[in-house]
Amino acid sequence: MSPVEITLAVFLAVTLCGVAWFGYHLITQNGRLMLRMELLERRLAEQGILAEGVDPATLGRPPGSVLNDFALPILGGGTMTLSQWRGRKVVLIFMSPHCKHSETLLPDLAAWLAEGAESDPAPVIISTGSAEENQRFFGEHRITCPILLQEETEVAVLYQAMATPMAYLVDEHGATIGRAAVGPTAILRLLRDPGRAEDAPSNGHSRAGSHPSLASSRINRDGLKAGTRAPEFILPALDGSEVTLSSFRGKPLLLVFSDPHCRPCNELLPRLEEIHRKSTDLQVLVIGRGDAQANRDKAQKLGLTLPMALQRSWEISRAYGMFATPIGYLVGEDGVLVENVAVGGNQILALAGTRREVSVRAGS
Questions:
Q1: Residue 95's closest CA among 23, 157, 148, 28?
Q2: CATH number for position 112
């Protein structure tokens, strides 16, 4: 071999050794990191804080995240939305009546509420399970803040809150401030000193104060306004046919977004069926969300004959500007929205009551 060839061979050998050494250390370092993450995940799951199989690295939305609106039943009656807190900071606390750490938080939370019930930020609890379970769970303590019930974990999944107890500090525009607080100690610290969350570094994410608000977000989450042309859609119906918005032209249409696992929706549907059967000047269309069979089973159980279409997830809700159920729109015979979005059963039924005025305007 020539001197040049020998030099080249030595260089290649040294380079390969360096790459091998770097790869070995990278693998061992990643292995240690994975073991630590698995240990952390296992400990959190064993303590009941983290849902089984959830990656801690994906827990919680980053600071400055604009949260989707919701409409949830209040324990004790009524419906509450996130958007109705616009203009005021709020702490959303995710809890569960089956979580021992949520139970640990309750006495201290009750004491904190007793010290300053009109505090800012305002605490709002989002819990899982039946009303009866939650009444027993919260009944032993004087919890004076609103307690909202999700059917399963639909809002928790949307907010990446797959641990209990877990809380977000939300600003006046509906965006998260700082990172989520996980566990009783962190939540109490957040309640007592919310300024610490506001000043916390965002690790590369925008702070809530400089993040676009809900009003400037590219995705509308507040619902479409009156005077807007209702977005067209083509959706499968429960009977296997297709449903389009344009096929309802000619009469006002009450368009309602529902979910088979939504308790307020299921309380509203029989009232909508009554309107569908008795009204001659108002059409009704329900857009169900999720599994087709679950929607069919619910329709059969409630004896529904009104037309029902299906969206797979939130694709049509997104076009109509609100990720929540039940919500409704009154669409004029020309396809233009007559009123702003109605949130909750009472508002939707009130919206249906304007049909005569719409019919009079249409006939003039």
A1: 148
A2: 3.40.30.10
